[in-house]
Amino acid sequence: MTTAESRGPGRPEADDDVVLHVDDISMAFGKVQALSNVSLKVHRGSIHSVIGPNGAGKTVLMNCINGLYRPQRGRIWLKGRDVTLVSPHRRAGMGLSRTFQKIELFGGMSVLDNIRLGRHIHLRSGIIAGSAYVGKTKREELRARKFIEEEIIDLLEIEAIRHRTVGMLPYGLQKRVELGRALALEPEILILDEPLAGLNLEEVEDMARFILDINEEERWQVTCVLVEHDMGVVMDISDQVSVLSFGNLIAKGTPEEVQQNPQVVEAYLGEEDLYATRA
Q1: Residue range 156-183, pLDDT digits in tens
Q2: Shortest CA distance to 45 belongs to which of 221, 254, 218?
Q3: Where are the alpha helices (H) located in the chain, listed in sequence order?
Q4: CB proximity list for 139: less than 8 A, separation 6 or greater
Q5: I want to staple 242 with a disulfide (CB 3.0 to 4.6 A). Which of 7, 60, 137, 252 is the partner?
Q6: 50 Cβ partners below 8 Å, 6+ apart?
Q7: Which residue ranges of the chain lie beneath pLDDT 70?
């Protein structure tokens, strides 16, 4: 049997509050065990952070969640549906969006054009209507333009650079553009893979504010899965934290619970880093 039904236990108990359920997944590359029986539940409207040292399996886990990798064991449930064998673009159509650890933008295109690419999943008009730019195609384009220019660009405070070529922008602004492209999909769940990496203190504070706005503002209310090394931000803004070490889930709970877990201190944080606060 090759269908999803052969991949493990049956459908989990219904819980409308759980929008993402990673159920006992394992992933290996040759002899390297990247993930070993990892499970986690992400609740609607939360910020759920995944932390761990380099090589812990965080990005591999994110790649499994959005469909770039297919785990060799276990299942992944998105809004109550088994998506273990579902392609990345179909998961995107279900409301799952993502930013990447390394910026994946088109450097020769403008800020606006890069963000607009995130709308492709919502385009429904056919070839004929598209070539004529009438009717449904025109309405789709006008709605997309209004959404991007009046909401995303305003939220991320990038009005002044909207027509600039992305490749000529500072790294911190490129990070905002990538976030804008992910938001153009109008996601219900947003994976943020190290959004603060390489940013200075002011840029970190701005990005943390954007993440909170995306999660909390009534217009957005996006559930966020955050992979991050900045423990000050993680502990400040997360509702739940899961900790990976060498592909194993060693702890999960509230930031306060994780801070007090001896395994986490030993494997990753250290006393000094764990209890440090941002100035």
Answers
A1: 999 999 999 999 999 999 999 999 999 9
A2: 221
A3: 58-65, 88-93, 111-116, 127-132, 135-147, 153-156, 171-183, 201-216, 231-237, 255-259, 262-264, 270-275
A4: none
A5: 252
A6: 40, 58, 61, 62, 225, 226, 227, 241, 242, 243, 244
A7: 1-15, 120-138, 140-142, 144, 268-279
Tokens, residue 65: 């969640």
Strand ranges inside 92-147, DSSP E: 96-99
Residue type, 258: V
- Calculate the alpha carbon distances from 43 to 17, 150, 252 in Å: 5, 29, 13
User: What residues have CB less than 8 Å from 147, skipping those under 6 apart?
Assistant: 119, 184, 186
> What is the separation of C-alpha 107 from the centre of its chain, rounded to a whole number of angstroms?
21
pLDDT of residue 136: 67
Q: Per residue in 36-56, is it b (16+ CB within 10 Å) or e — as a string? A: bebebbbeeebbbbbbbeeeb
Report the alpha-carbon distance of residue 177 to residue 274 in Å, rounded. Answer: 31
Tokens, residue 269: 């944080």
Contact 78, 189 (CB under 8 A): yes
Tell me how far apart the alpha carbons of residues 221 and 226 are, in angstroms, rounded to a whole number. Answer: 15
